[in-house]
Amino acid sequence: MKKSKILVATVFAAIIGLITIAADHIDAPATSGTNADITDFYAFQGENTRNLVFVANVQGLLSPSASATASFDENVLVEFNIDTNDDKVEDLVIQAIPRDGNMYFFGPFAPSSTGLNSNINEMATKNEVAITSYGTSATISESNGMKFFAGPRDDPFFMDFAQYGAILGGNASGFNNPGADTFAGSNVLSIVIEVPKSQIGGSGTINTWVTTNTKQ
Amino acid sequence: MKIYKIKYIAIAIFSLFIISCDNNDENTMTPVATDFSGTFSQKDQMGRPAVNTVFVSADSKDAFNVTIPSQQGAMFQSMFETNLTGLSPAYANAGDANALGLDAPSFTSLLATDVLNVSLDGTTTFFDGTNVLTGRALADDVITVELLLIFGGEDFSENPTLSDDHVSANDKEFLTSFPYLASPW
Predict the structure, then answer these.
(1) Whole-complex ipTM
(2) Distances from the Cα of A180 to the Cαs of A146, A192, B141, B146, B165, in angstroms?
């Protein structure tokens, strides 16, 4: 009795979680539907294999018409965290914040303190790129071996989320073949940074994660 | 009389013109510094895809987002294990493992610390059949990988109807060059 109750509760929680959508799209009540909602995070080797690329996407599930008016929030700081010694504490950060049509970037730099609160380090290496408007070609800036982009892009995430929800809801026994990409035709606001590996640890393995932080 | 009026109006307009020019000059000479001040408090965080969505119970999702990674394992591993064995009951059997050889406690220990591991030495992928957790590339079918690790058993053969969503690629092609993501719809 108790076991089945726990199972029901777990499945119910999973359904709630999945109905409110993966990968991290609208994952938690406090961020859901806000300008600080992270949808996805990527880190991969660049076209130039000496570089690493970081991608943070926010404000998911934008329709084309909503994408034309969507904008980054000047009160939301996006922080890329990099742990180079595997203690799960950030050794380097790259900060990104919009101001008046531009996205400003600080770092990578070693933060003077770690934890849940951040201040922008104006003494760190500073770069900027004009935020690309919807319907125009991508504006890219290059500086100090780094490349920067900010603006609306196609949501790169793909999944038959609707069918997964149906399975967990007991309304289907498995996935369809072929499945249907629930995220087809939707956009996100993306921040893309390409940085030389030499600036973020050189070689070996890093741990990395992205946070959004709202101005107090 | 008439001529004086025109003269005064002309002088008035001219002086206005000079004053406004002057103002413009002052504006361009002293630009306002961009304000980056203030304290920013963490609201959302993400390392690996779908971790909070799938493994964190509804009433803990906000708390997970404001727990720093170095404390996530201690605070959330047992909840992850409960939710994993709830989703995929085979994990509750002693000795059961996934294709990475991880049983429920070790798999959920890995997942509960929500950071993305990235190699700086070569291939970067969530899983490509050879490389495991060396990054996350745009084209990686991360959901199928996670379904296989949750439902697929030791050799990816268990629960075949649950371990692949049969969506293996994005709806737009990615670019080979920066910014890599496709243009918006």
Answers:
(1) 0.89
(2) 37, 27, 14, 18, 8
